[in-house]
Amino acid sequence: MKKHIDTILVQSGNRTDAGTGAISPAIHLSTAYEHKAIGQSTGFDYSRTGNPTRSIVEDTLAKLEEGHRALAFSSGMAAIQAVLSLFTTGDELIVSQDLYGGSYRLFLQFEKQYGIRFHFVDMHDDSRITEKLNGRTKAIFLETPTNPLMNETSISAVSSIAQGHNLLLIVDNTFYTPILQKPITEGADIVVHSATKYLGGHNDVLAGAAIVNSEELGEKLFIIQNSIGAVLSPFDSWLLLRGMKTLSIRMAQHEKNARVISEYLKNHDCVSDVLYTGRGGMLSFRITREEWVGPFLQKLKVITFAESLGGVESFITYPAAQTHADIPVMERNRLGICNRLLRFSVGIEHVDDIISDLENVFNQLRGEAIIHG
Ligand SMILES: *Cc1c(COP(=O)(O)O)cnc(C)c1O
Question: Which residues fall within 8 angstroms of residue 273, CB to CB, at 6 or more apart?
């Protein structure tokens, strides 16, 4: 029976321990596993290679993304680093020009240290992708929607270019999650996640994942995961599993709130523009005056000024000073990540309370502007 994603999420971990019937799976802290005789293994030998609690979360992630196999890492960046380790000196990748600041930083590091070349392009325009193609191109790395500018790219359109040129298509699906988009079903070969964000959902676990569409890629990535060892710990695997159970209802509420808030912001005269795709819980907006950014962030009482996203609590991030500070100012401005841009991870609090918080702060800023001119 092919189950709905909501059911896969809620039931994850259940019926995995026939011996005890535990509904919530055990956290297997043991790093070593007994062998009854030479060549006899339960399938678990040493915890870096495989751990029963991590296996449950990995199996769940593979089902969610409709992939062949999933591997869980100690962070999103560890997952991305493992994927980049598939490439070697002289290889070239075509990547989204507007992407997570940490990925941008890691790409530059790989370029400098290992001589892997990264071409940053606007993924909307097929010709921008094809003009960078050459005999050394090995993969396309796509983030959709992009962070923080919320540009959407058609995965299937990019996938047809990738397939036509024998390239791997890697998609960072952190923002939409498999609830809103399943890149493998649209032709991607590898999906990466910062599971720290929506999948975990509670701002209490740092985790990453890579999900692949074939046995061959699964084996290659497993060798990297096992040799480098940036694996998700048993306790963090359990926390992630626990968090993921409610992913579908959380996403529905994030989206419901984000739709109302984007309308509110669009109609507000303290806001010059709102970037929202109409799906999911992430949006960005530009406040009209740069000098308001600091006081705006300080005066918030419900929303927290913090650097992350995807949790149940509403967060606002200032990309220019936080997530995207590693991107040079000129480049940031060229992309539109200006000093008035704020990124909003809309939480699942009551939407009226979030809007009251914004309204109070905007009123204070406007009042002060009238007094000081
Ligand atoms: C946070 C994030 C990452 C990095 O993940 P960590 O878990 O922080 O290492 C990668 N991609 C996107 C889109 C992110 O938001």
Answer: 285, 286
Residues with Cβ within 8 Å of 333's Cβ and at least 6 positions away in sequence, in order, are: none
Q: Say how far apart CA 258 and CA 243 lie, in whole Å.
A: 21
Of 194, 206, 199, the residue nearest 233 (C-alpha)? 206
In this prediction, residue 175 carries a pLDDT of 97
pLDDT at 30: 98
Give the residues across from 119 on adjacent strands. 94
Tell me, what's the pLDDT at 191?
Answer: 99
Cβ of 236 closer than 6 Å to ligand 1, yes or no, is: no
Residue 355 CB contacts under 8 Å (≥ 6 apart), including other chains: 260, 261, 264
Q: Which atom of ligand 1 is nearest to the CA of 207?
A: 7
**Domains of the chain (ranges, CATH numbers):** 5-244 (3.40.640.10), 248-371 (3.90.1150.10)
pLDDT of residue 158 exceeding 70, the answer is yes
The 3-state DSSP class for residue 62 equals helix
Long-range contacts, 298-307 (Cβ 8 Å, 24+)? 299/360, 299/361, 299/364, 299/365, 300/357, 300/361, 301/357, 301/360, 302/349, 302/353, 302/354, 302/356, 302/357, 303/344, 303/347, 303/354, 303/357, 303/358
Residue 370 has pLDDT above 80, yes or no: no
* 354 in Cβ contact with 263 (< 8 Å): no
**Pocket flag, ligand 1, residue 173 (CB < 6 Å):** no
- Pairwise CA distance, residues 336 & 350, whole Å: 31
Tell me the pLDDT tens digit for each residue of 197-232.
999 999 999 999 999 999 999 999 999 999 999 999
DSSP state of 285: E
Least confident of 93-107, 160-174, 342-356: 93-107
The confidence band for 31, taking pLDDT boundaries of 50, 70 and 90, is very high
Omega before 52 within 30 of 0, i.e. cis: no
173 contacts 193 by C-beta, under 8 angstroms: yes
Q: Is 193 in the pocket of ligand 1 (CB under 6 A)?
A: no
Whether the pTM exceeds 0.85: the reply is yes
Which residue owns the Cα nearest ligand 1 atom 8? 76
* Mean pLDDT on 89-116: 95
